[in-house]
Structure formats: C-alpha cells, structure tokens
Amino acid sequence: MPDPLYIASNLKFGYHPDKFVLDGIDFHLDRGEFTGLIGPNGSGKSTILKLLTGLLKIQVGEIKFDGKPVGEIPPRELAKRVAYLPQEDEVHFPFTVGEIVMLGRWPHSGGAFFDSESDRRVSLQAMDLVGITDWSGRLITELSGGERARVILAKAIATEPEILLLDEPVSELDFKYQNEAYKLLRNLTNKRTGVVVIAHDIGAISRWADRLILLSNGKIMADGAPDEVLNENILETAYGTPVKIISDGIDKAIFARSERGDAV
Prior knowledge:
The protein has one domain (4-230): P-loop containing nucleotide triphosphate hydrolases (Rossmann fold, 3-Layer(aba) Sandwich). Helix content is 31%, strand content 26%. By secondary structure, it is of the alpha/beta class. It is built from 9 helices and 12 strands. The protein starts with a strand and ends in an 8-residue tail after the last strand. The longest helix is centred in the last third of the chain and has 15 residues, at 175-189. The strands form 3 sheets. It has a 6-stranded mixed β-sheet, sandwiched between helices. Strands 2-1-4-5 form a 4-stranded antiparallel β-sheet, covered by helices on one side. Strands 11-12 form a two-stranded antiparallel ribbon. A hairpin with a 2-residue loop joins strand 9 and strand 10.
C-alpha cells in the first residue's frame, strides 16, 4: 500500500513573474519507495527538491510533509527527517572525511557539539555502507570528484533520514561505483527510507527505481513504473528529439537518434 510522506498539490513556481518552471503539478513521494526524477534540462527537477526542503518558498499550491505544510515545520526538525544532497556540495576547507560525514549528525545535535558516542557510531556505519571507512583521516580537499561524491553521500546517510533527496548523486562516479551507489540506495528502501534521485542516465536509474516521474515544460508527462514511462513516443515528446530504446530484456539503453535514424 502507498504510504505518502510528501504530497504536492497544484504546485507552481517560477524564477520570473511571467514564466513558471513548474506549472500546476501534483505528485506524492512514498516511504520506502525509490523514485527517479527525469526530464530535460530546465524542466524543474532541481527546483522540486529545493521546494520539498524549504530552500525555495512555495508560490502557488501546497506541499505537505507527513500531513503538515512544509512551511510550518521548523528547519532543524525537517533536516532531521529529510536529507538533501544538492548537485554541487562543495567543501573548500580541509576537513577530514570523518568530520564531513559527522556533519550529517548536525540536525540531531540540539545545538550542542555533535560528537557523542551515538553520533560516531552512526557516522562509522554510514562510511562502512559507502565503503569509505579507511578514508576517515583523509582530507576532503585531497580527494577526486568521484571520491568526494561518495563522502557526501555517506554524510547524507548519516543523518538517518526518512527520505533522501539526491540531485545527480552518481554523475561523477564511474560505472562500478554508480552501480554500487544505486544498490546501496535500493537497500535503504528496505528499511522504509524513501529515496528520490534526479538522474540524466535514464537507462541506469530505470534498473533500480520503483517509479519514474518524467517532467517537461513544467508538467509531469508520465508517472509510473519504469516500463510504463520508458516509451519512445513519450520520451520523444518530453525531450523534443527522436529517441531509441534498446533492451536485452533486463537492462535498457536510451539514445537520441541522429537525423539519419541511427543511434548516436
């Protein structure tokens, strides 16, 4: 049975008065569900995550979290229950990996210094899940982009949220670690943690997500199981270009077609 954690109704938002990025959309996000947000650049995917976390103020419509309007929930309280990983989460100071991951415990600190035994235990568990336990003493400034991405993911997991909102979390990871990251997120849903991922590699996210929400021109073009959403006609309309889907019966690859009709 669906168990909505977020419910958005008639949601409209624009960065300019005469143009909506999101134009009257309705959706829900459930506990324990892995949802992929897909769609062309500028379709409002990142804007949705910022509205869900309260980083952007709702202009029209409503978003409820666990039955309560997001704007009425104190930021620290929401941060305990929702972990947000933006597309660019830069760290410019030479903190250690262990210190960065520990920052995920900040919402639970109550304003005190968050270095309790419980915080250390949860942070170590998060690093172990992501496979970076041996990096605890390394400086974040000395890591590659892909390594940093894994550290920031561990920080989000250390929050122990009810839902993770992730904006392209695997874009800097190679094939192996992309697969491992998605597998980890998939396993988190078994513990009733909701996962929402913005992804441009539609074929990759479709292998792991329970559900895809396809956005285009401020509207939701499709919302359902990956096999329902990954339709060439639907994708061509959403992305404005001819599309070819190739499948081996399990995995799918999605290509934009050239004018000659060949996949490129």
